[in-house]
């Protein structure tokens, strides 16, 4: 018999005549205050402006299951998509129940039946929640304590503590925040207008399938037709669909969720980096299509769907943690790795250097790691500084990854031509007018690292500005005009030797002061986090053309040594 596909539109009151389960492989409840308020306000506005109109809330993709409880058969639906909206409606109903006086029995009864079915031993009816949250045991407990139990949504102090506790499950934190938001909303908006409209005029559409594979395909089709699902959600769903063992599916779903929580909004970016490691070509389509066409479909596939994909993602997530978390000191017993990665994360505008770093660590762990990171930093900076196009830079990164794949030992990588620099072109850049170039901040941060050393961490302030020592537009009466001719200022003002970093926004009025005043009043408290800036203001009591040239020669020598252009 053919598998049955159902589709129907339902008012909210009819949606909650069905039974739902949020399966263990689903992502957590992630709606924030803004999304909850937007839903509440949209429904309230629709109810006020045209109370007889219908409001379309969205779609659900479901997998139908036949269930039996104490001899009673019923249908339960796994929620593949739509759980954020449906959970929010569930929370709204619980808040409305707790704000409704006992005298309004009709509304109370509607809310109670929406939230759970009371047990009736005489009729052999078991107690059953309308939505079963299988994503975490802690979430189930939270739902029982604060949603199922009447009065739970009014325990505001407890909910505030859960919302603010970073150790709590992310679903619990967000549900607690949502309940508090809904409570606040009804302090200034009438339930008597909102709730009847929500129940009888707000529509949802659902599509369901009997088989998990069919349901996942529907999930994908809905995504392609504009439903806002993330690429990573579909990849996860398709891979879980390949795992038949329920215990393993639960295990991998939880691991995926942990990785998703770790990267948050950067999760798709992380998966793109893994795609790069595998494919070693510039992406030409969406992340989902890249995985399907270029990873899963070649013969043989670069990666198999199911367990192999989950293990691969988990392995590289662990690599990322070991490399980028604050205790990466333990990898090399030095802050050198931490400081270079701080430089690269804060100095570069693009992050596709992360893929070769992850791949190197996967192959060789800490063997030659510091040397590789320095060479990777130099190569990535080289291609950016000399003006290669993004396409060429990506191709060069892919060559580095290929060199890592081909290497027998880590020395093969360090000697690979893919890490070779363009020495002559780089030196021309260092000698040119640096200020105004997009890479100016990176070069000054690199100088700071080179002067800082690695006995301590290199701290990055929240605000970093580039300051000219010899100002761009000095006052005609200032000493700058006495010490520098117009031609000298034109030649030297924007060079590397005249630039420093400060930990505040640039102040033109202060920056135009004579050197002694600037040094005393402007830089005293604004360069404390930058080693190169401190060095200059400790070393130079004046800033004449000779001083500037001397400093330029020194930093030029230092930066060239940092790029290994000279010994």
Question: Could you walk me through the main structural features you see in this protein, from its secondary elements to its overall organization?
Answer:
The structure is a single chain. The protein has 28 helices and ten strands. It has helices at 12-15, 33-49, 83-99, 105-115, 137-148, 156-164, 170-185, 191-201, 212-224, 231-240, 246-263, 267-279, 287-296, 307-324, 329-332, 336-347, 354-364, 369-385, 390-406, 410-414, 423-431, 440-452, 479-483, 486-492, 508-511, 515-522, 531-539, 545-562, and strands at 5-11, 19-22, 55-69, 72-81, 116-117, 128-129, 131-133, 202-209, 465-468, 499-502. The longest helix has 18 residues, at 246-263. The model is unreliable at 224-228 (pLDDT under 50).
Features:
single chain; 567 residues; alpha/beta; 6-stranded mixed beta sheet; two-stranded antiparallel sheet; 28 helices; 10 strands; 56% helix; 10% strand
Give me the secondary-structure category.
alpha/beta
Helix content: 55-70%
Ends apart, CA distance between termini: 76 Å
Spans where pLDDT lies below 50 across 5 or more residues? 224-228
Strand order of the largest sheet: 1-8-3-4-2-7
Average pLDDT level: 89
Main β-sheet description: 6 strands, mixed
Q: Which word captures the global form?
A: elongated
Output the radius of gyration. 30 Å
**Beta strands, count:** 10
Helix count from the secondary structure assignment:
28
Q: Roughly what fraction of the amino acids lie in strands?
A: 5-15%
């Amino acid at each position: 018999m053919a598998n049955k596909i159902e589709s129907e539109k339902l008012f909210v009151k009819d949606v909650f005549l069905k039974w739902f389960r949020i399966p263990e492989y689903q992502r957590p409840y992630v709606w924030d205050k803004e999304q909850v308020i937007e839903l509440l306000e949209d429904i309230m506005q629709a109810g006020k402006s045209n109370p007889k109109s219908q409001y379309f809330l969205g779609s659900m993709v479901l997998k139908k299951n036949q269930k039996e409880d104490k001899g009673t058969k019923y249908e339960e639906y796994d929620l593949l998509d739509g759980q954020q909206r449906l959970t929010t409606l569930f929370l709204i109903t619980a808040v409305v129940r707790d704000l409704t006086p006992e005298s309004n029995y009709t509304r109370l009864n509607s809310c109670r039946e929406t939230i759970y079915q009371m047990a009736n031993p005489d009729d052999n009816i078991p107690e059953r929640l309308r939505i079963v949250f299988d994503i975490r045991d802690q979430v189930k407990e939270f739902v029982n304590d604060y949603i199922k139990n009447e009065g739970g949504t009014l325990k505001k102090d407890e909910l505030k503590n859960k919302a603010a506790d970073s150790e709590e499950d992310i679903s619990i934190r967000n549900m607690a925040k949502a309940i508090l938001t809904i409570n606040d909303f009804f302090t200034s908006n009438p339930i008597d207008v909102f709730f009847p409209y929500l129940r009888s005029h707000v529509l949802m559409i659902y599509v369901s399938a009997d088989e998990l594979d069919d349901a996942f395909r529907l999930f994908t089709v809905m995504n392609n037709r504009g439903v806002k699902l993330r690429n990573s959600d579909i990849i996860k769903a398709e891979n879980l669909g390949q795992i038949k063992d329920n215990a393993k599916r639960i295990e991998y779903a939880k691991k995926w969720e942990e990785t998703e929580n770790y990267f948050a909004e950067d999760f798709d970016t992380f998966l793109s980096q893994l795609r790069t490691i595998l494919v070693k070509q510039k992406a030409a389509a969406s992340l989902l299509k890249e995985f399907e066409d270029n990873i899963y479909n070649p013969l043989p596939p670069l990666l198999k769907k199911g367990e192999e994909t989950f293990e691969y993602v988990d392995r590289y997530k662990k690599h990322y943690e070991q490399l980028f978390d604050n205790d990466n000191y333990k990898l090399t017993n030095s802050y050198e790795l931490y400081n270079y990665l701080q430089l690269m994360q804060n100095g570069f505008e693009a992050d596709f250097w992360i893929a070769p770093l992850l791949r190197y660590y996967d192959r060789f762990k800490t063997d030659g790691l510091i040397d590789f990171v320095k060479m990777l930093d130099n190569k990535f900076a080289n291609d950016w500084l000399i003006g290669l196009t993004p396409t060429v830079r990506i191709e060069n990164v892919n060559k580095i990854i290929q060199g890592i794949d081909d290497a027998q030992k880590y020395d093969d990588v360090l000697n690979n031509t893919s890490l070779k620099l363009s020495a002559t072109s780089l030196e021309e850049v260092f000698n040119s007018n640096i200020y105004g170039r997009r890479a100016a901040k990176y070069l000054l941060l690199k100088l700071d690292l080179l002067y800082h050393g690695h006995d301590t961490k290199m701290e990055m302030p929240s605000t970093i500005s580039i300051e000219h020592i010899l100002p761009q537009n000095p006052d005609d009466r200032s000493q700058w005009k006495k010490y520098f001719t117009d031609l000298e200022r034109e030649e030297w003002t924007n060079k590397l030797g005249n630039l420093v970093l400060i930990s505040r926004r640039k102040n033109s009025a202060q920056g135009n002061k004579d050197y002694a005043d600037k040094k005393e009043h402007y830089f005293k408290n604004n360069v404390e986090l930058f080693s190169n800036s401190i060095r200059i203001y400790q070393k130079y009591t004046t800033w004449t053309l000779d001083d500037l040239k001397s400093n330029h020669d020194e930093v030029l020598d230092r930066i060239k040594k940092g790029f290994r252009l000279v010994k």
